[in-house]
Each structure stands twice: as C-alpha cells, then as structure tokens.
Design goal:
The complex is a heterodimer of chains A (about 800) and B (about 120).
Chain A (H helix, E strand, L loop, with lengths): L4 E6 L3 H13 L4 E7 L5 E2 L4 H5 L9 E3 L1 H6 L3 E4 L3 E5 L4 E4 L6 E3 L2 E4 L3 E3 L12 E3 L3 H13 L2 E5 L3 H12 L3 E5 L12 H13 L3 E3 L4 E5 L6 E4 L4 E3 L2 E4 L3 E3 L2 H5 L8 E2 L11 E3 L4 E2 L8 H15 L13 E3 L7 E5 L8 E8 L4 E8 L2 E8 L5 H9 L8 H4 L3 H6 L17 E3 L4 E2 H11 L4 H8 L9 H11 L11 E3 L2 E4 H10 L5 H7 L11 H12 L13 H5 L2 E2 L5 E3 L10 H13 L4 E4 L5 E6 L4 H10 L12 E6 L13 H12 L8 E6 L13 E6 L2 E6 L11 E6 L2 H18 L6 H8 L1 H10 L1 H18 L3 H6 L11 E2 L2
Parallel strand pairs in A: 1-2, 1-9, 2-5, 9-21, 11-18, 12-13, 12-18, 13-14, 20-22, 36-37, 37-38
Antiparallel strand pairs in A: 3-4, 6-7, 7-8, 10-19, 15-16, 16-17, 23-24, 24-27, 25-26, 26-27, 28-29, 30-31, 32-33, 33-35, 34-35, 38-39, 39-40
Helix pairs in contact in A: 1-8, 12-14, 19-20, 21-22, 22-24, 22-25, 24-25
Chain B lengths: L4 E7 L7 E6 L7 E5 L5 E5 L13 E3 L2 E3 L6 E3 L15 E2 L1 E4 L2 E6 L14
Antiparallel strand pairs in B: 1-10, 2-3, 3-4, 4-8, 5-6, 6-7, 9-10
The chains are: A alpha/beta (about 800), B mainly beta (about 120).
The structure holds siroheme, flavin-adenine dinucleotide (FAD), iron/sulfur cluster and FE2/S2 (inorganic) cluster.
The site of FE2/S2 (inorganic) cluster has 10 residues of chain B, from loops.
Amino acid sequence: MSSPERLVVVGNGMAGMRTVEELLARAPERYAITVIGAEPHPNYNRIMLSSVLAGEKTADETVINPTAWYGERGIRLITGSPVTAIDAAAKNVTVAGSGAETIPYDKLLLATGSKPLAPAIPGLGLPGVRAFRDLGDVEMMIAAASTHRRAVVIGGGLLGLEAAWGLKRRGMSVAVVHLMPTLMERQLDTAAGELLRRDLDARGIAFFTNGQTEEILGADKAEGVVLADGREIPADLVVLAIGIRPNIDLARGAKLKINRGILVGDDMRTSDPSIYAVGECIEHNGQVFGLVAPIWEQAKVCGAHLAGDAEAAYVPPPIFTSLKITGIDVFSAGVLAAAEETDDEITLHDAKRGVYKKIVLRDDKVVGSVLYGSVADGPWYVQLMREKVDVSAFRDQLVFGRAFAEQAGAALPPIDIAAMADSEQVCGCNGVSKGTICRAILDKGLETLDAVRAHTKASASCGSCTLTVEAILAHHHGGAVTRRADPAMCKCTDHGHDAVRAAIIEQELTTIAEIRAAFDWKTADGCQKCRPALNYYLLCAWPDSYRDDPQSRFVNERVHANIQKDGTYSVVPRMWGGLTSARELRAIADATEKYAIPTVKITGGQRIDLLGLKKEQLPAIWADLNDAGLVSGHAYAKGLRTVKTCVGSEWCRFGTQDSTGLGVKIEQMCWGSWTPHKVKLAVSGCPRNCAEATIKDIGVVCVEGGYDVVVGGNGGVEVRVTDHLVRLASEAEVLEHVGAFLQLYREEARYLERTAPWVARIGIEYMRRRIVEDNDGRRALHQRFLASQREVQSDPWAARAGGVAAHEYRVLAAVE
Amino acid sequence: MPSDRWTDIGRLDDIPRRGARRVTRPDGLPPIAVFRTADDEIFALVDRCPHLGGPLSEGIVQGRAVACPLHGWVIELDSGRAEAPDEGCTQTIALRLVGNRILLSLPAIEAADGLHWEAA
Ligand code: SRM
Ligand SMILES: Cc1cc2nc3c(=O)[nH]c(=O)nc-3n(C[C@H](O)[C@H](O)[C@H](O)COP(=O)(O)OP(=O)(O)OC[C@H]3O[C@@H](n4cnc5c(N)ncnc54)[C@H](O)[C@@H]3O)c2cc1C
Ligand code: SF4
Ligand code: FES
C-alpha cells in the first residue's frame, strides 16, 4: 500500500478551506493534509465580520469549521503560526513559532488572501489605528467602541462603510474620509452613490469626500486625522479601509511568477506545477479578486485538479455585490455604465422614494445593473446576464422587475428549481447548496424564510439570494407557502391562539397549568412566547378572580419600567392628555437632580422620559413622583400608553371641540388596562389633525357638531391609516364606543397583535356590526371593559414604593 | 480549586419559583444571576447574555432555561449554552444548597476584560 501524497495548505481562510472541502468531497483518502494558518482561530466566515461588528452576529456564529472538524478528517491543523518560507526545490515549507518546524509536501496550496493597504502617511503605527480584516481587528474595534467615543474610517468603499455602520451601531460618532467624490465608486454610479450618502448621512455618519488623509495625529495614541486641505477630525479610533493587495510575499520568496498577484492558469496552478494557489492572493487573466463568489469557483476547480480531474477549468462567473447594512439596499453587478457603441442604459430614478435602478445592455443582453432602494430583482438581472438572454422582447418592462415583466406577458426564462442540481450553490456568502436547503426543509419541516435562514444560514448574510431561497421553499410546499388560519402559538403546542382562547371560556380553565394540561403542552413550563399570552388571556377572561403571574411577564411589565440596552431602566410618568403643571415639572426636575438622571427626554407620546435608572432606585423615585401626584405611564405595558391631544377649542382658532378635555376623559377611563398589545389613542380638535389621530389604534377627529371615531391605525413598522368606524354627536357616546372597541380588541385579538393587523385581518365591517349597529352588544362590551378596569386602576408604582414585590428591586446579596 | 471560596448568599425562598435574583460583586466584576426553577432546582450564571450582554436574571425562566430579555436568546441554566440556532456560552458558577441556604463558589480572582491597543 502506497502512503498518501502530502498536501500542505498555507492559509486557513475562506479560499483554502473551501478548496480542501471540495477536494475531500471528491477524494477523501488521497492526501495526508496539513493546514497552516497565521490566525489563532479555526476557519471562520470573514464576510460576517461586518455583522459581528454591528452586533448582529456573535464571533461564534461565524465559525465555518470548528477545530474538531479538522481532527475528524485526519487533517493536521496548525494555527497562530505563519509559514515564513517555501523551499520549492526541496519541496518543503518552514513554519514560524517555538518549534520552527519544516514540513515537506508533494503538493502545496497557497491561499494567503490579501493584506490591507495603508496610505503612506505619518502616524500609522500609533495605538488606536487599525485595519478591518480579521477577527482580531473586530475584537479590538468592539473594545474601543465600549470605552471611546469618536471614530474615523478612512475609505468609503464597501468595507469602510460597513465598518462605519458597525461602529455607529455600537454608539460611536463616526466620520468617513473618502478620496473620491462619491461613495463605493467601484460598485456604484454617481446617482446611486449619492443616494447612499444621503441615507447614511441621515443615520448620523459624517462624510468627508474628496478627502485625502495626510497625517494621523497623536503623541502616544491616535487622536485625530488631518486632511490635505487642512481639515482636522478628532478621533480615538482610526480604521483603515482603503483597499487590499494580494499577499504574495511567500510566492515571491519561492520565485513563483507574480505580477499583482500570484499568476495562475485556468487549472489554478502557479508557475511551479506542484504549487496551486486560490483566492485573493492570485491573478488570473489579468484579474485579481476581492469577493467570495469567484473564489468559490476557483476552489471547485482547484479541488477537482488536486483530486486528479485534469479537465476542470476556471471561468470567472459574473460578480455582484451588495452592502450589508441593515435597511440599506444596494446591489451592483457587471459594468456600471454604457461604454461601447452597442451599449445602452435604462434608468429609473425616484429620488423621493429613494429608488434608483440602472440596467446596462450590450447587443440586447444585460451586462450590468446598479440597484438602490429596491434590490429584489438583483438576482434576476444576474441570471439574465449569466444566461445571456436576449431581452429585446420585454425591454420595456425590464427596469420594473421580473414580476412586472411577467404580468405584462413577457415570456421569461424561469428560475427552474427542479432543473437545479443539488450541488449548485445558492448562497455565496455562506456556501449553502440547494441540496442542503432542501434537506433542512424536509428534515426539520421548515415553512418560512426566517426558519431556513436560522437553520442553514442561506441568505442570512448579504441576502441577495433571498429570491432563490424563497423559490426553493415554494417548490417544496407546492407552489405557494400556505399559512394556517390559526397558527400554532409556539413550539410548546400545536394549537393556535383562537382555539386556546375559546377553550378558556368554554371549559372554564382558570390557570396556566390547567390550559397546558387541557391541550397536552409539550413542555412542562411553556416558554417566553406562550406564557405571557396565556397569562393575558386568563386575566382578560377572569378579571375578578385570576391572580396575575409575574413570572410569566416580560421584565418590563414585571417591574413596571422599561429595560434599556445597558440593563438600566426608564421611568415615564403619565401626563393625562399631554397636560402637565408646574408642580409635576418641579417634581421631575428635583428627581432628575436627586437621582443624577443622565437623560431626560420628551417622548413621541407627549410626556417625559427619565432614562438610565438602576433598578434598585425605582421604588424611591416613584415615591417622590407620587408625592407630586404623578403615577405610572405604563410606557412598558401591553396596555394603554398615551392619549395624545391637541389644544383644541380651548385655545386654537380652528378648534371645533374640547379635544384636550376629551382626551383626558378617555385616558382616565382606559388607563391601567391590559391589552393584547400596546394601545395608543389621540384626539384632534379639527380635521387638520395635529394629534395625528388617523395613525392611532383609536383616534377621534372632532368636527363641527360631532366626533369621527377612527380605528386600526399604526405609525410603526408598517404605517396604516385608520378605518372610519362611526360619526357621533356627544362625548358620552365617544367614551362608550371607545370602551366597547377596546374590549372587543381585548377579547378577540391574538396576543401581540396590534389593532392595525387585527382590523386588517377581520375587516372593519365586522367591527361596525358589533360596535355601531348592535346597540345592546356595544353597551355590554363597554360594561365588561369598565368591570375589568376596577381591578387594575390603582397605581402600580405607589404599591411598589410601599413595599409590594420588594425582592424585585433588591439584590439578593452583595459579595465583597 | 483550593483558591475558590463558598459564599452564603441567601435562602432558597428569597428567589421566586421560575425566577431569579442578582448577586453583585465589587469593582467591575459582572454580577451573578441565581435561578430557581419550578422544581426548586437552583443554578447560577454570570448575569450576561452571550449575545450582547443582556441581564439574564431578568429573563423568563422555563424548564431548565431562561429567555434573555433583550433579544430572546434562550440560555440553558446548567451549561450556560445558548440553544440552537443561536451559538454562545455564558460562564456557569458552581453552587450548593445546604438546608435552605444557597452557597456560591466564587472564583477568587477573575480578570475584567481589558482593552488592548495594538498597532496596525
Ligand atoms: C420613548 C419613545 C420614544 C421617544 O423618545 O419619543 C418610545 C420608545 C420605545 N418604543 Fe416606541 N416609543 C415612543 C413612541 C412611539 C410612537 C409614537 C407615538 O406613540 O405616537 C410609535 C409609532 C406609533 C405606533 O405605535 O403606532 C412607536 C412605535 C414603536 C414600535 C412599532 C410598533 C408597531 O406596531 O409597528 C415599537 C416596537 C414594538 O412595540 O414591538 C416600539 C417600541 C419602543 C420601545 C418600547 C422598545 C423596547 O421594547 O425597548 C422603546 C422603549 C421605551 C422606553 O422608555 O424604554 N415603538 N413608538 C416614545 C414613548 C412614547 C410614550 O410617551 O409612551
Ligand atoms: C469585513 C469584510 C467583509 C466582507 N464582506 C464581503 C461580502 O459581503 N461579500 C463578499 O463576496 N466578500 C466579502 N469580503 C471579502 C471576502 O471575505 C474575501 O474575498 C475572502 O475572505 C478571501 O478569501 P481568501 O481565502 O483568499 O483570504 P482570507 O479569507 O483572508 O484567508 C487568508 C488566510 O491566510 C492566512 N495567511 C496569510 N499569510 C499566511 C502565512 N504566511 N502563513 C499562514 N497563513 C497565512 C491569513 O491569516 C488568512 O487567515 C469581506 C471581507 C471583509 C474583511
Ligand atoms: S387640530 Fe385643529 S384645533 Fe387642534 S391645533 Fe390643529 S388646528 Fe387647532
Ligand atoms: S443580549 Fe441576550 S439575546 Fe441579545
């Protein structure tokens, strides 16, 4: 038996390890493999570093192959030690480190990636100056963000902007210095670059374009940067992201042919036939690389050659990029602008909506596209590019996207899921194939895009393959993803909210444990999704007798204050109808000083927020506020939040009714109530609607001689304008209709369903039937609402200031 | 672990069933969360979620796990590990129950995270 050949891989990064995976899939026994990596970590997904910096992923989540993976495959892994030299004649490499070992090879694979470029300026070596390339850089930046305030990012390309956004998310004030007049000029044209700048500007990032950095200031650590035109920007952290250069030092030492990168042929072989190279360190046909999609192709070809397949040849795929900044949609593929005689551009620019699309055509085929604000069709344009489809037949619809073109009757090449091979890569960022997605869908019974993302990571990084992942899901679920009419509450049960609620009344279930028993709950305790829901349903069904379960409440409702990101709490006293007085303001001012409250803010709900209190301080400040007559504003509750009002007929020259007074009356009727989700009301004194009543859960718009009651509005994630419920003549009728609507919502909506989706789901006609047309029914609903209020209209702050639930506000012990 | 010490931090009944209380420590050492399950089992973890440091002592306790109040990761009380698909781990602290008293094994020395500034 001949001993296996020895393969040595230099670089434990994305290209090197993908090549090893491709090789193992074809010829698992062929080589004795040694992998040597300069970084101290196992193989991780570099692309996700931006998400780690932004706090959207943890470092652990980026690991592709943990250390055990190498062991299980008999691979020797050396981490934290760079290779310092290659002896191509003797066929061995030297590894730095304590042992300074020499390792012989039969085949060598170079996958050394690239090095960050640094401008030739003074101050580069100062502490606090860092590149954005590896996990060590990200860890340092996160640490800096927790102790320092100001960051300057040099470079307004993909990497620089993601760094800037991540640092901004971590609370730093961030400035970006960019040499060129527009951002990401290599991926975006001027119009898209401008939109991007505008959006990032609105998110609080400062830009210095046409900015050449001349020096990094500082005596023993970075303190700022100076630009060539004399501008100075202070900084505690300076991040360099001006570009990368192939890391070819080893190859040069080994006398391999190099230019900008290590020169390789279509077979991924260097000028030495025993040495292969892949990834950002190579140059192929005059091209160097900085994105993973082409690198995955190289890995496939190189893995095939190492496995003995001499036919495989590298053809660069079309390359596309998108920015990984949550909420900013940018997509770019191929050429950015018409350049040749036969080129054409189609553009759509809707500056107000922030949408921009450009398609570049050559001989009636798509050769490039730049999308901003609406990127869902990006993968489709790439498909048209890759398949060189003649688009002349649907050219007019092209820029409006696939769905529109289809509607207009264009015969389009389909995304043919059935014809797609299982091995075909769907998600370039995370290297997930169609087969992996299908298996996860079948084995785990996944039904939603989010579930597929959570389990396979497909489309979880840049998101540009979302459309394909959705198509695969739809393919498995027979066309469209169907939704259950009453979806299961959570993983603890197969039963839906509506069924459980009905049973609570019919079978007179009175405790959470009884419900779990009646419905064969799969878990002993329930979870954070079902327990608060059941607690609410019982409270609503049996307002007089059910004893609230604090341990089934989200922390905010349990402790009657809003938890903040740093574990402190905020305190928002009620200001009835937005009214306040000298006495209340004085009490707030005094408390602010007494408790050294760092931030006092007027909320979007017409009252005052005191932020940054320690939990232990809460009962004391509540007692002080109570003394001035202030009570809890329930800013933390799935319950009544605010009733916003305008000044109305008391002061305003257009006011038709006393909107302020009516608002106060409504708030006094409704405060304290628990509801499926939070509830916000408003009363405006005339149709000018200064209190924004038409995007509230319930709004009242006063008119000459009456009141319009409108319901089901929302100003949040998905803005929804209210539906008109009824016009009424008196305040008393308004109060009755508001109470009845709230009770109907309390009794029939699902937990965590705001009125807007509820009204949209059930329909306003049903609400009118129950509340407007059925007089007895309305009165009964209103009475039930008032009855439920008897139990809850006592100030929870006063109770706690008086000693209720004292254990919540005291530490168990303080260890010295 | 000769350098560790057992410290009495209170009674089992001081913690509500399906609840937690906090034990603070001096000088920048993160607090410890002590949990009591429905079956009166007790566990202690460093009071920091492996995600973004949320206070686990404020979470909803369910079986032998707790859901972090900030973004809903579920952390196993016995191992400190996050349940899939999330990944991460919080340090566990050994404890024992003597009668009704809870004793924590506190590591004698524990370094707070420091900031290392390095040249690029
Ligand atoms: C303090 C305040 C912002 C401010 O400084 O002005 C605020 C702060 C929060 N809002 Fe808000 N919202 C505030 C007014 C609003 C408004 C404006 C309004 O009420 O007129 C809206 C849009 C109107 C609406 O809801 O229809 C608003 C839409 C949201 C949403 C999206 C709701 C939706 O259905 O889409 C959330 C998320 C949620 O509830 O799940 C949210 C959630 C939050 C939370 C509770 C997030 C959280 O879970 O920690 C914030 C913490 C509050 C705290 O004190 O710790 N906040 N939030 C405002 C408090 C008003 C008050 O006096 O109580
Ligand atoms: C923050 C960030 C975000 C990104 N986002 C995207 C994105 O959204 N989409 C996209 O397509 N691409 C993105 N990229 C680019 C992508 O990560 C790279 O193209 C890819 O990682 C290149 O793979 P590689 O194996 O060639 O290099 P690397 O992944 O850098 O691997 C090279 C490895 O070799 C090691 N090494 C170098 N010299 C030696 C030596 N002498 N001895 C031992 N080991 C050595 C290095 O330490 C490194 O670990 C991003 C990059 C960064 C930094
Ligand atoms: S809504 Fe009407 S009454 Fe109220 S402030 Fe505006 S104009 Fe005046
Ligand atoms: S901090 Fe715990 S889930 Fe985010």
